[in-house]
Design brief:
This protein has 53 residues and is an all-alpha fold. Helix content is 81%, strand content 0%. It is built from two helices and no strands.
Length: 53
Amino acid sequence: MSSPLDIIVPIVMGAALLWWIGRSMSRQALLIATAVTLMVIVGVLLVQNAGWR
């Protein structure tokens, strides 16, 4: 069973990393990077919750 921290921590860390990298990106590139990052986070959480470790 996953705790709320298993969901919150990756999202916050991903947002911080995107903010750091995105400072020099154009708005369109930042939106694409955000979408890709969110898809990766959701994918990792789905795999983790499915038990495929």
